[in-house]
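I hope you will forgive my troubling you with a question about protein structure. Could you please explain, in whatever detail you think fit, how the structure tokens follow from the sequence? Thank you for your consideration; the sequence and its tokens are set out here.
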Amino acid sequence: MIELIKAGGPVMYPLIALSVFALAGIMERLIFWFAIIKQERKTAENILAIARQDLKLASVAAEQSLNVPVARFLYAPLALEDPDPELFRLALESTADEELAGMLKGEKLLEASITLAPLLGLLGTVTGLISSFGSLKIGDVAANTKSGSLTQGIAEALITTATGLIIAIFTSAFHRLFLALQDEQAKLFMKVGNQLELAYRQQFQKLSK
């Protein structure tokens, strides 16, 4: 591994650093999503079941699960003091936007890695080729001398290109996965938000009569 890094030339060092940052970002997001997926639906179903019977008790149940995003989402309107239906919906919508935006934390790091890795690989290709051909003269090529320098430069170019592409492809796969999970969360928020709003409107109408 060390020999491969050395063969890739100086551009390999920022590539390795970039891969470490990308891997750290991926691990943090995996832990985050794993914790959410285990709790979200069960928590939402529990709060909604209580809300259909008693909104005050649902507010207490949601408050006890504020470590879960969907609970924070449902708690925001339930915590209001006798809001009208429009204010209730506004609280749902604003909290959903805030929570979904928070789920994109760390995405910028992954996006930067996807963009920079191929560019660094291309830079390594250019510097490797410059190193190869810069040390040769026309007579050297004809006499097939300094072939070791030429081979070393081409190897540097190929190694950095491959490394940059591997980092970008690997990071891009997880980035797409996280975006898909965030999209699923948006659908869940819409579904449970509509159900909670319906339960609230039904109880609001009863109290208004």
Notes: Residues 141-146 have pLDDT under 50 and may be disordered. DSSP finds eight helices and no strands in the chain. The CA atoms of residues 51 and 58 lie 5 Å apart.
